[in-house]
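Running log. JK asked me to keep both predictions on one page so they can be read side by side. First protein, sequence followed by its tokens:
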Amino acid sequence: MSETTIRIPTPLRGFVGGRDQVAVPGATVREALAALTAGQESFHDRLFTAEGELRRFVNVYLGRDDVRRLGGLDATLPAGATLTLMVALAGG
């Protein structure tokens, strides 16, 4: 199984020791994100709904493409892939 690099946005870096990217195993987007959040329920809950789907305000890109347009969480990752997490921020 190849490694995927996941770029982490600033608001989520506290879950990964402040790093801006993390390498994880995974053949699909779902597997890579599961590896990223393994053992961290609060991190997992930030990204996923109770049904296991990405939250509405969480976007994941494979290169320039939104994974929702590539098959969603079950999209296959090529060797050496880079995923970019993006989360919408709200405030007032």
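And the second, directly underneath as requested:
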Amino acid sequence: MNLTDFTTSVPIDHVAVEERVSRLNKRSIKKGSKVQALKLALSMMDLTTLEGKDSPGKVIQLCQKAKKPYAAMPDIPTVAAVCVYPNMVKVAKDHLKGSGIHVASVATAFPSGMAPLSVRIDDTKFAVEQGADEVDMVISRGAFLAGEFNLVFDEIAAIKEACGKAHLKVILETGELHTYENVRKASDLAMQAGGDFIKTSTGKISPAATQPVTLVMLEAIRDYYYKTGKKIGMKPAGGIRTAKQALQYLVLVKETLGAEWLNNELFRFGASSLANDVLMQIVKQETGQYQSPDYFSID
């Protein structure tokens, strides 16, 4: 790693970023393509429960929804993963066995990351030992903002090593990074340190995911791919609540990275309230009638 890669900012044209997002949001999607895109969005979701009151029963319910998002339409795809705290990983793993749905776990003293590195490494190893296929870590935002880029790099690399075969998603918590330049710098750092995905937010800080920030991160992924040939995944998380927003994010991905990234191996949504709106829109497109929200479980 060359430290100058992170001390030198990539210039970001703020107006151009926001104008491009605005322009892409005006794209219309025809009905046949819309159904396909909505089902694709559903297949990219990480259904998530990250509350202090989480229980095995709640996790089991979430796993059932992951496997059968809407029983009345058995052809609807399953989601990509269920994301839980490390102590709930085994519960999720047992109830998703044979489904092909991954178990993701937040770790590293989520959401603050304010714990000694040894504790964060142990947290990660525990999640993987319990059966996590993916680990969502948070970076040390305070260290990053203080310019301690080597420290942040080394911590990500250490967590990546602790993950073993599990994929690592690196959460930047972009709402605390303040500028597009910092988002770009953190994205580059996370990828070079070994992250398999870069992720906007924990969902616990406002603002969480935004389309301009996501575009900056997608462009970082594109440039990293051109430089190394390695494909890095992207996960916007928090604040994405409607099917319309989900489709707008898919357009951003398609226009920035191309169709090769339009799959759940390289793109995810972290949005606990998004699934039901997407399901309602699929039913509307397939039947011509809106279903009441009461027909879908509240998770």
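Observation for JK regarding the second prediction: The first helix runs from residue 4 to 7.
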